[in-house]
Amino acid sequence: MVQRLLQPGEIESLDHTAIPRLLLPEARSLFSARAARLRQLADNQIKGIPVGETLSGYLKMMAALVDAQAAVATTLPADTYALPDAAGIELAIDHHMPPLPVSGQRPASWRRVFDAILDQLDPLAASQPQLAAVLAELRALDSAQLEGCADAVLAELTEGVHPLHAPFVAAALQVMWTKRASQLDAQRVQPLVTNTLCPVCGSHPVASVIRIGGQSQGYRYLQCACCASEWHMVRVKCTTCESTSKIAYQSIEPEGGMPEPSEPVNKANDPSKVARAETCDECHTYRKIFNQEHDYHVEPLADDLASLALDLLVGEAGYARASGNPLLWFNAE
Q1: pTM of the full predicted structure?
Q2: Which residues form the FdhE C-terminal domain (predicted)?
């Protein structure tokens, strides 16, 4: 059989069917969708991610914070989220560096975002004394203290960071970087030397997700904890050390147990596969992987925050979490 040679125009058209390497965030809808998911999780509506009463209250508080992010992302002037000069972006891309790095000097306008988020939360704080106290403490921080907290949040350091302050600072930084990332050209951004860091800002991923629909069908993406960009990584590969030899998956058995061998098994909508921990016996770390094939509405950051029971299970098995969640901080101890 003679194979027909493709013409140049046909070759170019094939590019549109390739795996999208980078999915930039939809900044106008991302935070509202995340807040809705957090409330579903808080109400224990998601099979496969059981949530206790104590965690439920925290998730509802974080949903309110994400609501504030959504409002600020759509109401502040566009110049708040202005990109660096084009020459700087091109230089970074040409050298396979993040065009919007979290390291180094950040735009001063992030403080405008921070103040606006706190203002959005004031009505809720009127009925919640604990939240009101935290907001008062945040407003009392001087410039050096606030910038120091932002430095630590972006560097993912726990030492010297107040665990109640950090999520609010992280929330402002997330809005700042997500809005700016959404303005980039995904086709121009180049992968980094390591595929374990975000090609847009250089941050660690919060989790990975198997997407469905369109060109992304069945492919795994890592979602950035800071700018929410998603980049492709093949499945069954450690997202920390990139090993492929000793990968395993841990999950929480659904309520009622697994079906008996004689029972029919639905390949979709399997609660035990909505949230799993991908563990690596080379570097002894793990990162969670969420599967849209089993729950269409998975949201990596929200689902990661809600699945602390899975963290406890995997931690007891001797694995260390590869990176944190920007909406949950612990004391250094």
Answers
A1: 0.90
A2: 236-328
What would the pLDDT profile of 45-55 be if each residue is shown by its tens digit?
999 999 999 99
- Nearest to 114, CA basis, from 175, 35, 63, 164: 175
What's the CA gap between 48 and 209, in Å, rounded? 15
Q: What distance in Å separates the CA atoms of residue 178 and residue 21, rounded to the nearest whole number? A: 18
pLDDT reading at 218 higher than 90:
no
CA distance 73 to 171: 11
Distance CA 223, CA 184 (A): 16
DSSP percent split of the chain into helix, strand, coil, nearest 5: 40, 10, 45
Residue 41 CA to chain centroid, in angstroms? 16
Strands 205-210 and 220-224: antiparallel
What is the length of the chain? 333
Give kind and range of the element (H or E) at residue 14: helix 8-14
Whether residue 59 contacts residue 42, with contact meaning beta carbons closer than 8 Å, is answered with: yes
Are 253 and 261 contacting, i.e. CB atoms less than 8 angstroms apart? no
Can you list the domains of the chain with their CATH numbers? 18-181 (3.90.1670.10), 205-258+268-321 (3.90.1670.10)
